[in-house]
Design goal:
Layout (H helix, E strand, L loop, with lengths): L1 E2 L2 E2 L6 E5 L2 E6 L4 E5 L1 H11 L8 H11 L18 E3 L26 H18 L3 E6 L8 H18 L2 E8 L5 H10 L2 E5 L4 H7 L9 H12 L4 E5 L10 H11 L6
The protein binds iron/sulfur cluster.
Length: 266
Amino acid sequence: MIVNNKPVQQNNIFAIPVLDQYLIYAPLHNLAALVDRLAVCQIKDGLAGARGHTSDGLDEIVQNLTSQAEPVPSAREGTFAPAFLGLIPTRSCNLACEYCGFLAAEEPDLVMDLELARDAIKWYFDLVRRSGLGTAEIHFFGGEPFCAEEVVDFAFHYAWLQASKIGCSVRFEVATNGTFDEERCLWAADSLDSIILSLDGPADIQDQHRHRKDGKGCFEVIVRNARILSERAAELSFRVCVTADTVARMPEIAAWLCRESRLSGL
Ligand code: SF4
């Protein structure tokens, strides 16, 4: 299951390194467990039929993993009908969150060509037209999508143009770090339908891992924008990254977010 500290698949049982522990994940056995390295070795021995000293908890895991698994789901069939078109205007970002995987992207400043955005939107609306759907849906992801504002603005207007041509409506969603200025915030609140804002919690939590590239915090501007968004029509959801440092404060974080904002989802 583990070779050179890398996860290895074994009969749809996975051991994934998580900090100094391992997540045993076996979807066909409906099992997920966080264990230490010794336990991984003991589970591996147990699966190989070796008898050794283990705890009751590990015996239970081995029993579960050696019991009949759920059947492997078959590949999807039927008409290709994606729920939305996802666009990544850029992988770059104005923040430097410590847990961000996108920072390692090979070309972090690469921005989507407008021609590519145009072709993707055109292709998607043709699919929407042929499927007879009344509503199209476009989601923006990043990096930080508003670091490539020209792509977001182009896609927004071009999508409305295509929607008007085929007589459907269009919904927009963005996942953002919310560090934009007030003008962009008001545009997002009034133009987009759903905004997923990355905010980890009160100032000491937010600025601990989710800071700017120069190390300065970004809490104030995001909370100001969250308040503006709370008062407008767009649905507002928060995406909270919980770390080992903050997991015990989850109830406090949830209560704080509910107090501070009118949220639709967490
Ligand atoms: S805001 Fe998102 S994309 Fe930007 S550094 Fe943080 S996790 Fe990465």
